[in-house]
Amino acid sequence: MASKSTDVRPIVKLKSTAGTGYTYVTRKNRRNDPDRLVMKKYDPKIRKHVDFREER
Questions:
Q1: Backbone angles phi, psi at 12, to 5 degrees
Q2: How far, in Å, CA of 5 to CA of 36, rounded?
Q3: Does pTM top 0.85 for this prediction?
Q4: What are the C-alpha distances in Å from 33 to residues 2, 10, 28, 36?
Q5: pLDDT tens-digit profile of 6-50?
């Protein structure tokens, strides 16, 4: 049986939309964000802030 915290907050990978292949790893609350997560974060390969989308 999975623990309660991992069931509600799964680990997700955020991949850069700039096409550099850079990723962040984070957790999300499945109840508050049932859709794919999109966050604006820093991509050090191109030295800019870009959208990062949740990978499945």
A1: -125, 150
A2: 19
A3: no
A4: 20, 11, 7, 7
A5: 678 999 999 999 999 999 999 999 999 999 999 999 999 999 999
Annotated domain spans of the chain: 4-55
CATH number of 4-55: 2.20.28.120
Tokens describing residue 52: 């990062």
What is the C-alpha R_g of the chain? 13
Cα separation, 34 vs 19, whole angstroms: 25
Q: How far apart are CA 33 and CA 27, in angstroms?
A: 11
Question: What does 1-56 look like in DSSP terms, one character per residue?
Answer: ---HHHHHS-EEEEEETTSS--EEEEE--TTT--S--EEEEEETTTTEEEEEEEE-
- Predicted pLDDT of residue 4: 65
